[in-house]
Amino acid sequence: MAIEHTPPANGLFKPATTPRFEGSAGKPIRAVRRLPVRRDWPAGAVLAVQVGILVGIVALWETGADTGFVDAFFWSKPSAIYATLRTFFAEGDAWADIWFTFRSTILGFLLGTTAGSLLGLSFWWSRNYAAIVQPYIICFESLPKLALAPLVVLVFGIGLVSKIAIATALTIVVSTLTAYAGVKAIDPDGERLFYSLGATRLQVFRKLVIPACLPWIISVLRVNIGLALTGAVVGEFIASQHGLGRAILYAGQTYDIALVWVAVLVLSTLSVLMYIAVGLLERLLRKGVHQ
Amino acid sequence: MASPTKLRIDDVSMRFPAPAGAFEALAHVSLAVPAGRFVSLIGPSGCGKSTIFNIVAGLQEPSAGRVLIDGVDATGTIGRVGYMLQKDLLLPWRTLIDNIILGMEIQGVPLRAARDKALPLLRRYGLGGFEHAYPSTLSGGMRQRAALLRTLLFDTDVILLDEPFGALDAQTKLQMQEWLLALWSDFAKTVVFVTHDVEEAIFLSDEVHVMGTRPGRLIETLAVDLPRPRLRACTATPAFMAMKERCLELLRADLSAPDARAA
Asked: Which of A26, A59, A83 is the last residue of a domain?
């Protein structure tokens, strides 16, 4: 830039416009900018706004239902929901439903995660076996397993077992594929080291493969608890005598919208609590793993 | 030579099937290493140094030839020699001491006995105070020391070191070379050392074997008769320089040979 605008040495003509130069160095002026500063609000302020938004929504909903702006038949209203919540716990079988859903979720979660992880790890033993089984795993993975839920209920009955089966089906594939990914990620040089030390296959499996795959297995726990809960609730939707899923379905069919909200609220609480518990479990396991 | 041959590589060849016929990784490699010797293999990448190690360690079957340890055929048997790769391969979930005893553990030594044996060595060789540290908290040099101690504690007469200091910075590398020589004179092992670094090979070894590529083979063996214990200053002596020049010349000649590329 500066060079172009310098007049020729013979001084025959001058530039038509004077460029915006500053100082003798002839550098163009630059806008003065400062590094943007992030200002974090105090933790209390963030919480206050969050609570404020929640209270605002509830208040709008309530007044909207009272003034007819919101159709209380379809949407119910917070005061009615609160009243239903109290009766649900006081008179209804809230605890029985929670216990039923909780049990099928946890059992499906444990069964699916354990069986899936073992299956994934087992692929280490034989590449032929892994090659044969893998397409089936992928097929089962792409299958919409929830679409099979009616069949599962038919086979396993309307009791707890069918819910566990659906929860297991949802969790097992994720665990299998993740554990297998862990197996494939094992450094071949690590195996060479073990064999150069004269190790047996079982020793390599126990002392290298399992510890190396543990972080992978742990990483799916939180995904799996959510999937297991979904499976259990869908099982209850199809046919069940207990559970929060059945409560939601029943309430919807009888137009008891307040009860739908209550059951969803309880279900969400259960979900969050289980998620937190699994998160703690994960932290605990990771401490012992050191990756 | 007074000492008997500890490791003999007897006319070993290695061919891999390849799209255009067979790829010859090693052709008729023969090598005899007397007990307690420190020998180095140098050569350009792809000359089959690592393949030789894999064959000696029993991790690969040679297409032809045998490996003898103490005169006994050990071709294709694992756990007969200590083998250290360039990567330290310390297990991140094990403490330093438990990493170092891995070889003994695999051989069935009770954990307590193995730890009792490893602990004094750990302290003597510069890893004291880090027994219960996890590998991720250690420097590259310390991790490499640990890997070498693991190899030594596996307690085989022959030790194969595949570019153990290749990934270290220059300063650490020099320290590690001296540390390795101290260890070697304490443990009296037979060491075969692979490196790219000509100076490293000469400084450490009794004998340097220069290898060529395509096919991988031994070109020449140079005896290093510099006095031991060696000090760093010996790398500046005319004898050392001459040997280094000779090695580089051989390596250059192999790389520029026209038939080597065509094959």
From this structure: A83
CA A104, A110, A113, A115 torsion: positive or negative? negative
Supply the DSSP string of B63-86, one letter for each residue.
SEEEEEETTEE-TT-SSSSEEE-S
Number of H helices, E strands in chain B: 9, 10
The pLDDT tens digits of the residues spanning A153-180 come to 999 988 899 999 999 999 999 999 999 9
Distance CA B3, CA B191 (A): 14
pLDDT at position A19 is 53
At residue A78's C-alpha, the angle toward residues A73 and A81, to 5°, is 75
Chain B touched by A137 (CB under 8 Å): no
Residues A62 and A155 in one domain: no
Looking at the fold, whether A78 and A113 belong to one and the same domain comes out as: no
Residue A266 CA to residue A275 CA, distance in Å, equals 14
Q: Which of A193, A195, A204, A217 to mutate to test the interface with B (most CBs of B within 10 A)?
A: A193
A130 with A67, same domain: the answer is no
Q: How many CB atoms lie within 10 A of CB A65?
A: 19
Q: Cβ contacts (< 8 Å) between B85 and chain A: which residues?
A: 189, 192-193
Q: Do B93 and A194 touch (CB under 8 A)?
A: no
- For residue A50, the enclosing domain spans 43-83
Domain boundary among A83, A114, A139: A83
Is the residue at A252 inside a domain? Answer: yes
- Mean pLDDT taken over chain B: 84
Specify the pLDDT at position B2: 55
A74 and A95 share a domain?
A: no
Q: How far A31 CA sits from the closest chain B CA (Å)?
A: 45
In this structure, the answer to whether residues A52 and A133 fall within a common structural domain is no
Please state the domain count of chain A.
2
- Ranked by mean pLDDT, the top range of A111-115, B11-15, B97-101, B130-134 is A111-115
